[in-house]
């Protein structure tokens, strides 16, 4: 859809480097010492946070990433550098300050819910001396980058002096420079390509209560004028992204998040996706669509997370076909749709699915786990009669197709009139052709057009025939 899968822009991320430390626990009782929960630790894990999470998101999208920031001479900093390096991120621009601890945020998670956060950090601004050293290091490298992202968590790295020096340098080289801002004074971001404030941050910075589209538009105009931005936008959480078009009119790019488990790091994903998309040649409107989809993927995960192109495509696919009946396609429509899913692993199976039962569900769920897109070719009524006899099917083809489309594991249904789906298989050339274990040792129609054929065990004792035989006894 976006054509970004083969893009590999070189992006420099500058900002507050930190670790997100997660304590996974369960709580079943209250402390006798105080009215607080007792968290019984089950597991702990570290993840890249802050500007590092922006870099991690960029790597997952295929960007070449260089990281710049300040860490302490401690075990947290050593873990951070090691893990950035393992991702292939350039760490040559990371500076160590002996007296400064590496920022570490510890979150206690109980039943997928964050119940407590403990921060270890020094939020004082880095010295002018280290600021000048950082700038001097970057000054002659800036031409190497397609985009610069400033990830500001208000932890002291992006002070006004360094931020303005970098922005002016980037603009002098006609480089994209995107800033994720913090604080109530956006003056230090003046001259950037764009900022990505959320609604609350924008309200504070512009001193505007955003209550409707008019006040939202006013806030966007204020940001653009006061900060001398090329593009003015405000992120609106589940409502997407608002921006001013070329005529200074409000435009909203909506998003759809199916399930929201944790919004941690969603802002990192948005700015990473915007930087990647704009570097890849998309206009701001398409870039916002891409960023929205990426953010919708990560909020469906727990903790700081990333989104891949495959996950973004899958999310957009599921949103586009959220109405069950939209999954039922003609042969022509199916082939057209598959053109936009070329990088997906296509799974194909077929059957009558006359009376849907547990065996069918198990079979289809197992089939879906073999790839990305599951296509079910459904025998038409005429086809079923030829195969099963005049008394079948019990349910007409439209009803059978609609019931199948309600299953989350099924992506598309196509009805065919022939005795076998060989013609459809030859057109689709699926990655995997799936059939039941009862086909073992038998010739499977269309198998020569699939990259591989796999057989799945049935659930013992469950079949449409058995169900019909029981019904006759009632």
Automatic annotation (TrEMBL):
GO molecular function: ATP binding; heptose 7-phosphate kinase activity; heptose-1-phosphate adenylyltransferase activity; phosphotransferase activity, alcohol group as acceptor
Coiled coil: none
Record's catalysed reaction(s): D-glycero-beta-D-manno-heptose 7-phosphate + ATP = D-glycero-beta-D-manno-heptose 1,7-bisphosphate + ADP + H(+); D-glycero-beta-D-manno-heptose 1-phosphate + ATP + H(+) = ADP-D-glycero-beta-D-manno-heptose + diphosphate
Catalytic machinery residues: 268
UniProt keyword annotation of Transmembrane present: no
Keyword Kinase applies: yes
Pathway(s) the chain acts in: Nucleotide-sugar biosynthesis; ADP-L-glycero-beta-D-manno-heptose biosynthesis; ADP-L-glycero-beta-D-manno-heptose from D-glycero-beta-D-manno-heptose 7-phosphate: step 3/4; Nucleotide-sugar biosynthesis; ADP-L-glycero-beta-D-manno-heptose biosynthesis; ADP-L-glycero-beta-D-manno-heptose from D-glycero-beta-D-manno-heptose 7-phosphate: step 1/4
E.C. number(s) listed in UniProt: 2.7.1.167, 2.7.7.70
UniProt xrefs under Pfam families: CTP_transf_like, PfkB
UniProt region (Cytidylyltransferase), positions on chain: 348-474
Source species, domain of life: Bacteria
Region (Ribokinase), start-end ranges: 1-322
CDD domains, A to Z: RfaE_like
InterPro entries xref list: Bifunc_HldE, Cyt_trans-like, PfkB_dom, RfaE_dom_I, RfaE_dom_II, Ribokinase-like, Rossmann-like_a/b/a_fold
Residue ranges constituting the Carbohydrate kinase PfkB domain according to the UniProt record: 10-306
GO cellular-component term (any): cytosol
Entry keyword set: ATP-binding, Carbohydrate metabolism, Kinase, Multifunctional enzyme, Nucleotide-binding, Nucleotidyltransferase, Transferase
Domain Cytidyltransferase-like: 348-439
The protein's assembly and partners: Homodimer.
Sequence similarity: In the C-terminal section; belongs to the cytidylyltransferase family.
UniProt xrefs under PANTHER family: BIFUNCTIONAL PROTEIN HLDE
HAMAP family, per the entry: HldE
Function recorded in the entry: Catalyzes the ADP transfer from ATP to D-glycero-beta-D-manno-heptose 1-phosphate, yielding ADP-D-glycero-beta-D-manno-heptose.
Protein name according to UniProt: Bifunctional protein HldE
Gene name of the record: rfaE1
């Amino acid at each position: 859809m976006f054509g970004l899968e083969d893009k590999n822009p070189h992006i420099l991320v500058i900002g507050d480097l930190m670790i997100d430390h997660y304590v996974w626990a369960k709580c079943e009782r209250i402390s006798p010492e105080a009215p607080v929960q007792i968290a019984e630790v089950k597991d702990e894990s570290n993840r890249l946070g802050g500007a590092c999470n922006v870099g991690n998101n960029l790597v997952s999208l295929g960007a070449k990433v260089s990281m710049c920031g300040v860490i302490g001479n401690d075990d947290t900093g050593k873990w951070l550098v090691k893990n950035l390096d393992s991702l292939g991120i350039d760490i040559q621009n990371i500076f160590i300050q002996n007296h400064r601890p590496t920022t570490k945020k510890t979150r206690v998670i109980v039943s997928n819910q964050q119940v407590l956060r403990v921060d270890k950090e020094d939020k004082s601004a880095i010295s002018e001396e280290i600021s000048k050293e950082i700038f001097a290091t970057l000054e002659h490298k800036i031409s190497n980058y397609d985009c610069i992202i400033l990830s500001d968590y208000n932890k002291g790295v992006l002070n006004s002096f360094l931020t303005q020096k970098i922005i002016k340098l980037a603009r002098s080289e006609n480089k994209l420079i995107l800033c994720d801002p913090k604080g109530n004074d956006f003056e230090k971001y003046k001259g950037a390509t764009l900022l990505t404030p959320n609604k609350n941050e924008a309200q504070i910075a512009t001193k505007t209560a955003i209550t409707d589209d008019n006040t939202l538009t006013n806030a966007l105009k204020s940001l653009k004028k006061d900060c001398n931005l090329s593009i003015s936008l405000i992120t609106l959480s589940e409502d997407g992204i608002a921006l001013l078009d070329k005529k200074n009119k409000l435009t909203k790019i909506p998003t759809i998040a199916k399930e929201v488990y944790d919004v941690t790091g969603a802002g990192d994903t948005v700015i990473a996706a915007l930087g990647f998309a704009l570097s890849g040649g998309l206009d701001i409107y398409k870039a916002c669509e891409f960023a929205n989809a990426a953010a919708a993927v990560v909020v469906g995960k727990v903790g700081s997370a990333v989104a891949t192109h495959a996950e973004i495509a899958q999310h957009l696919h599921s949103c586009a076909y959220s109405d069950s009946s939209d999954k039922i396609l003609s042969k022509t429509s199916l082939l057209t749709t598959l053109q936009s899913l070329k990088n997906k692993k296509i799974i194909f199976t077929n059957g009558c699915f006359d009376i849907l039962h547990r065996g069918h569900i198990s079979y289809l769920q197992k089939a879906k786990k073999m790839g990305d897109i599951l296509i079910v070719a459904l025998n038409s009524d005429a086809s079923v009669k030829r195969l099963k006899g005049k008394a079948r099917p019990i349910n007409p083809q439209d009803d059978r197709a609609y019931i199948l489309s309600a299953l989350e594991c099924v992506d598309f249904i196509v009805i065919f009139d022939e005795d076998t789906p060989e013609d459809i298989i030859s057109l689709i050339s699926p990655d995997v052709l799936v059939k039941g274990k009862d086909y073992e040792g038998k010739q499977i129609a269309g198998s020569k057009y699939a990259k591989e054929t796999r057989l799945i065990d049935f659930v013992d004792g469950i079949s449409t025939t058995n169900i019909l035989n029981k019904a006759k006894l009632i």
